[in-house]
Each structure stands twice: as C-alpha cells, then as structure tokens.
Specification:
The complex is a heterodimer of chains A (about 110) and B (about 120). Chain A is mostly beta strands and about 110 residues long. Chain A is built from no helices and 9 strands. Chain B is built from no helices and 11 strands. Chain B is mostly beta strands and about 120 residues long. The chains are: A mainly beta (about 110), B mainly beta (about 120). The interface of A and B includes residues 34, 91, 93, 99 and 102 of A.
C-alpha cells in the first residue's frame, strides 16, 4: 500500500479555518485520497475523498495538488467537535480495494 | 437504520478465557470489516467479508481468532484463549462493494477488550 505522511499534531483556534496536510509521494494513478476522522471513544468517521479534482462536501473540502503527491483537508471553521485524529489514506476505488490502511494520523486540537 | 452496532461496548476477561463480539452492519451493506486498534495507533485491518464469504485475512489474525458472517448479515469475532496482548478496541465497519471505498466505510463505536 502506498504510504502517507501527516504531522503528528496540529492546533487550531475555534472558528478559524483548518488546513491539515498529507504527503503521498508514492501515490499510484488509481489511488483515491480518503480522509477519515476519529473522535475520542468512537470509531473512525468518513470525511471526504477524491481522485484528482478538488472536492467539497458538507463536512470539509479536499484540495489535491496537481501532481497528486500531496493533499490538504480543509475545515472551513473549526469547532470543538472538530477535535479528533484525522487520517489520510490512499485506497483504490470500486470493488478493487478490500481495506483501508490507517497510519497514526494527525491529532487536531481546537482551542477557544 | 442506526448505523453499525457493536456489542458489547466493553468486555473485561481473564487471560485464557474465550470472548465473542458481535457486529450488526448497515442492512444494505454487503461488505463487513473487522479492525483492531491499540492506544495511540490507527486501526489495523483484521479481516473482511463480502456477504457471507470471508475474502481476506490479515496475518494479525492468528489461529486463536475466528470471524464468521453466517447469513451475510451480522458478524461475530471470537478470540480463544485470550492473552494480555489482545487488549484493544475491536472495530467493525461496513460498506457497499460498488463504489466502496469511494462511498466510505461506516464504523461502529467498537468493543473495548481488556484482558487481565
């Protein structure tokens, strides 16, 4: 599985935008970039995913570099509920990927 | 549908005992996954099912571990002769095979196992 590199931890101020980076220099052409987050005492939660183009949904935006070797998860306005571990994962698409391989993620804290 | 349910939420057992966990996936999801997570680490893949067929097992899944999904709906994960190293959070997830993982996995809240 292609690997991703994320900062161990990041801190944001409440109501400020958050940019969580992820490097994936060995990404293959068929790898999608997926983001999950895990709140304390809960299972991971799907956030967003993309292949080449930037993506937006109700939770976040995903900005993908033109060469696809890095990406950034953008939370538009941090709230206390956004304090979680964020995982950037590379995986295939429809029917081709059987599992997600998690790293240690970025522990994101939100301060008042 | 209330999402993926796992039971029990917590289990404390003595070393050497057998334990069984249950996972009820989202009803229309045909794929079901088991993961294990230890403190400070990301979840580690254990195994997955497509309907009732177990299609992949990690080498982490020793012969003391067995998983079943008899009718393609709920699944059980059994650990025999538990060891202290089995203490972890056991997570279950489900998804649809078409578009999976493009449409995302839905995880349960996990079963926390403590072996004393």
């Amino acid at each position: 599985d292609a690997k991703t590199t994320q900062p161990n931890s990041m801190e944001s101020n409440e109501e400020e935008p958050v940019h969580l980076p992820c490097n994936h220099s060995t990404i293959s052409g068929t790898d999608y970039i997926h983001w999950y987050r895990q709140l304390p005492s809960q299972g991971p939660e799907y956030v967003i995913h993309g292949l080449t183009s930037n993506v937006n949904n109700r939770m976040a935006s995903l900005a993908i570099a033109e060469d696809r070797k890095s990406s950034t998860l953008i939370l538009h306005r941090a709230t206390l509920r956004d304090a979680a571990v964020y995982y950037c994962i590379l995986a295939g698409d429809t029917g081709t990927a059987s599992k997600l391989t998690f790293g240690t993620g970025t522990r994101h804290q939100v301060t008042l | 549908d209330t999402g993926v349910s796992q039971d029990p939420r917590h289990k404390i057992t003595k070393r050497g005992q057998n334990v069984t966990f249950r996972c009820d996936p989202i009803s229309e999801h045909n794929r079901l996954y088991w993961y294990r997570q230890t403190l400070g680490q990301g979840p580690e893949f254990l195994t997955y099912f497509q309907n009732e067929a177990q299609l992949e097992k990690s080498r982490l899944l020793s012969d003391r571990f067995s998983a079943e999904r008899p009718k393609g709906s709920f699944s059980t994960l059994e650990i025999q002769r538990t060891e202290q190293g089995d203490s972890a959070m056991y997570l279950c997830a489900s998804s649809l095979d078409r578009g999976a993982p493009s449409y995302g996995y839905t995880f349960g809240s996990g079963t926390r196992l403590t072996v004393v």
